[in-house]
Write a structure and sequence with these properties.
Structural class: alpha/beta
Number of helices: 12
Strand order of the largest sheet: 1-9-8-5
Number of strands: 15
Radius of gyration: 21 Å
Bound molecules: pyridoxal-5'-phosphate
Shape: globular
Number of domains: 2
CATH class of the largest domain: Alpha Beta
Largest sheet: 4 strands, mixed
Strand content: 5-15%
Amino acid sequence: MSNPSSEKIWLSSPHMGAKEFEFVKEAFDTNWIAPLGPHVNGFETDLKTYLGNNVHVAALSAGTAAIHLALILLDVKADDEVLCQSFTFSASANPITYLGAKPVFIDSEKDTWNMCPELLEQAIIERSAAGKKPKAIIPVHLYGMPAKIERIMEIADKYDIPVIEDAAEALGSSSHGQRLGTFGKMGILSFNGNKIITTSGGGALVAGDETIIQKATFLATQARDAAPHYQHSHIGYNYRMSNVSAGIGRGQMVVLDERIAQRRNNFLFYKEALKDIPGISFVEEPAGAFSNRWLTTVIIEPSETGGITREDIRIALEKNNIESRPLWKPMHLQPVFKNCLSYTNGVSETLFENGLCLPSGSNLTTQQLSTIVEIIKQLFR
Ligand SMILES: *Cc1c(COP(=O)(O)O)cnc(C)c1O
């Protein structure tokens, strides 16, 4: 079995619905091409309604920009420490360094692969005792799987440290019925090209407190004071989403729940098809958790597969023009963060060693999924 079409199968490619182009055309027809405009407000309202829990939303140019603004609004400054999940994409941690502050990395727990609450509390106690009480906590809902967010919020509240919830990969996921991104003092979303929905590039900041969103919007539009001339009493940023991008976003919101269903079906397909192969396992939703299954991830345990590794699978797929990718390399192992403190337990290192993200786009056909599974099974024959 090989990939019968010469067409590349991507890890997670954009998937447009029927309405995106109509919204974009409307932007063109009304000449709302400049940043701001009615689609930006419309997209924010769509997100607000979807997320529920009375949150407010600012549409921005990227998820990374949203984290940067969140840290600024929490007054994070040079030499401050921010606790950040180690097992994540670098964009969760990079904005900490934009402010001259220092990330302290927290390893994961085994159930959800996200921030370990015990290590989090240990880090808070130890760093506070050292006179460096953390200024913020950034947990991540990786691959759409909810972190143990209720427990993390309890700990954060106990020590009075604000949480920035990185829900970049988890739009539509929920924990005990509450949508992710709405638990922390602030939450962030991403609409980059490979995320569950895309605006071709974009992000959002979410907060229950409307004044936070007003301040974020002000900073994101060059911090211009109310005056007829250009008057500035703060340093500003050019971080607002454009009206054209927001038009794509409004179209994508129409199909978001369908996209989640399609991604969840990918997961079920892979799980069913690979269930009899020893040494291949999947991460399950703990009670109360609902994952958007942004990417289907598998763990390949070479001691149980007869020596077959995740690299064997990745390379076999690659030879057939099929993209798969190792799980995120933890931040505490990244050269750029080698001087940062970390609280580790080995969980994310093992996940990185043995884990693989399988093609997970919502536009995959059953034929393509079958091809992928057959190539994997062939390795085990
Ligand atoms: C994609 C992503 C981001 C950054 O979002 P951008 O919109 O690409 O800037 C942040 N955190 C995580 C976990 C992500 O996957």
